[in-house]
Q: What sequence folds into this?
């Protein structure tokens, strides 16, 4: 493993990200382009994009220091940006959603705006500037876009009003059961939350997308192994794991609205014969799942493949290495 503190301090990348930049021979290049790509405000196109979305993916950290990824939903317009330094969200996680424990004034959060049917996505990390239990504002710390690569195209619809909460009780466990493993093994998409703390007590939370052929996440008991292929070389997620080996993942049953959230210890694998067992992988990362929350029917949203999605054309239409290395 690369020591996360082996490189001199530089902005906007933290030590874990810089360690991976150096590992792939991109340290100088990323130092040059980083300040141009990572902003401390939301450009107008991002502000308009967030305002048209029916859901956001969110990352928070609970009192135990465990990161969680989850989904907030609402009619388009439930998220809006009154100015380039602020995003206002008129929705909060359900009381039984582990995201809820990480929401309070001053808490750091990660947000991903992603539109599956157009395959657009933009990320925003920041700090809660206002919170009243029903809505919250996020002050922007870092804003940047991602390419559409590896996003499975799906059309959305609401099965009920997003204001109506489903009463099915959550299922909390300390390990994966057969139903959870089946959902993970059938998934072509998940989202991952990670975070880092700096020497001054500051925290940065990030949440990102991962996609691949169904089965691209290998499940061995409570351990998930994920291949990582060439991407934009930002290494936001993996850099966070290098610096702080924890991750929270959310898997969605897009047809039923079920949500599976897991959190656990994580590691990045840079040098192992096992990498070659995943076609096209440049590295792997693993999550040893310690906490599991399954929330049946939690989402009002449902998704279906559009007419031209790769899956609708058969598994042979997917490239061999279908996952982002970001």
A:
């Amino acid at each position: 493993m690369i020591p996360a503190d082996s490189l001199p301090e530089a902005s906007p990348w933290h030590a874990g990200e810089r360690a991976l930049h150096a590992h792939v021979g991109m340290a100088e290049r990323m130092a040059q382009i980083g300040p141009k790509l990572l902003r401390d405000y939301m450009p107008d196109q991002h502000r308009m994009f967030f305002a048209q979305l029916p859901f956001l993916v969110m990352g928070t950290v609970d009192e135990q220091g465990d990161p969680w990824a989850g989904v907030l939903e609402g009619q388009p317009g439930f998220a809006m940006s009154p100015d380039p330094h602020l995003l206002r969200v008129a929705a909060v996680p359900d009381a039984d959603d582990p995201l809820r424990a990480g929401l309070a004034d001053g808490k750091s959060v990660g947000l991903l705006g992603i539109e599956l049917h157009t395959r657009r996505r933009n990320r925003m990390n920041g700090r809660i500037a206002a919170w009243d239990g029903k809505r919250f504002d996020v002050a922007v710390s870092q804003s940047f876009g991602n390419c559409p690569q590896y996003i499975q195209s799906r059309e959305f619809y609401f099965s009920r009003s997003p204001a109506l909460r489903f009463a099915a009780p959550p299922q909390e466990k300390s390990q994966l059961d057969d139903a959870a493993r089946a959902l993970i093994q059938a998934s072509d998409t998940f989202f991952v939350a990670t975070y880092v703390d700096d020497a001054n007590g500051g925290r940065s939370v990030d949440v990102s997308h991962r996609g691949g052929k169904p089965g691209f996440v290998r499940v061995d008991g409570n351990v998930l192994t994920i291949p990582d292929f060439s991407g934009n070389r930002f290494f936001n997620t993996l850099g966070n794991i290098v610096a702080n080996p924890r991750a929270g993942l959310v898997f969605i049953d897009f047809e039923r609205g079920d949500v599976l959230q897991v959190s656990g210890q994580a590691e990045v694998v840079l040098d192992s014969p096992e990498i070659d067992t995943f076609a096209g992988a440049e590295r792997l990362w693993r999550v040893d799942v310690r906490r599991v929350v399954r929330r049946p029917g939690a989402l009002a949203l449902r998704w279906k493949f559009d007419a031209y999605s790769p899956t609708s054309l058969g598994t042979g239409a997917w490239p061999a290495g279908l996952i982002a290395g970001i």
About this structure: Residues 4-10, 310-326 have pLDDT under 50 and may be disordered. The chain has one domain: 15-314. The longest helix spans residues 27-37. The longest strand covers residues 283-295.
